[in-house]
Amino acid sequence: xxxxxxxxxxxxxxxxxxxxxxxxxxxxxxxxxxxxxxxxxxxxxxxxxxxxxxxxxxxxxxxxxxxxxxxxxxxxxxxxxxxxxxxxxxxxxxxxxxxxxxxxxxxxxxxxxxxxxxxxxxxxxxxxxxxxxxxxxxxxxxxxxxxxxxxxxxxxxxxxxxxxxxxxxxxxxxxxxxxxxxxxxxxxxxxxxxxxxxxxxxxxxxxxxxxxxxxxxxxxxxxxxxxxxxxxxxxxxxxxxxxxxxxxxxxxxxxxxxxxxxxxxxxxxxxxxxxxxxxxxxxxxxxxxxxxxxxxxxxxxxxxxxxxxxxxxxxxxxxxxxxxxxxxxxxxxxxxxxxxxxxxxxxxxxxxxxxxxxxxxxxxxxxxxxxxxxxxxxxxxxxxxxxxxxxxxxxxxxxxxxxxxxxxxxxxxxxxxxxxxxxxxxxxxxxxxx
Length: 434
Fold this sequence. Notes:
The chain is of the alpha+beta class. The chain contains 14 helices and 14 strands. The strands form four sheets. The protein has a five-stranded mixed sheet with strand order 1-2-6-7-5, with helices on one face. A hairpin with a 3-residue loop joins strand 10 (about 285-290) and strand 11. It is globular and about 60 Å long.
């Protein structure tokens, strides 16, 4: 009889546990103040990614202090345009994930914070938690959502993958979750080298100048998509040296490759390629994964509508000035790379990738190249396209269909003043890139 009671008790516990799961009880992972969660371990060229817990009480104290995120500084058109050289692949992928609305809300807040922090010239706010100092750029508030720490970390690092122009974004992020289960925050940080507003501003100016004089100056209006990618690949390889010291923080973002250091690891190579292809509205994706160790590279969508692999780091070899063994290749010649996947979480998580072509890309000049800015579809970007964009922005005559897509230069799903300025600078000859 005693044994029967034990069996009944056991199955009773199982029953109620199942009920709690089915009913969606809020079973949350509790983290201690200052606890570090390793999102991705340092491996190969890839730097370690960390999410650090901040208590609700500490975050409440921080909110009482003045925040940098509420003010944007003046920046010339060249800087503002440069800050729009982003991807939105990670943002679009968020629609497929848990808490999609919260993820995309947080992403948009991060964009505002990062743009303002890049231009306001202010020093980062030094926050103290568990005896350690952190240089904060602002606070993303998600008061209406119940989030897991995995979701919060993935939001930040997917945003970071999409936006190489924010070179100062640290490999660490702070997060906080309310004990009630509803409400969370993300606190983006800067690398120590860019705590100073003056250092951040001078670095940004140097990077923008490098983009214009080293890369854009060598691209002409006669170059189609293929030749733009080819030139960017070759310019990058000729201009920088591979860094064997992965401990230097600036070797991972674009800062190492686009300042006087002219040195980067694979992450820096891939992010410069991503940034400059974004500049020319060439659809591409920043990839992390394994290639005999942690590694980063790119996927590129060419004018045949197919995706191909590109690894500028592995093409930068001392025995050959311009190697193209890993330039726009298909799956059959890319078997030594394995990308991270959306099926994983934490350190193994990456957005869902499109299928790549099995065959290498074969250049065909006869295939039409869709061109951003060519709103009327005549194969050129001229004053006519500028006026059509102006009429849309002013509300006089709204664009739709393919015309709208071609006018959306920065790919943010809207046609506004930023897109109009980019077309204006192109048509006037001020900037050879759209």
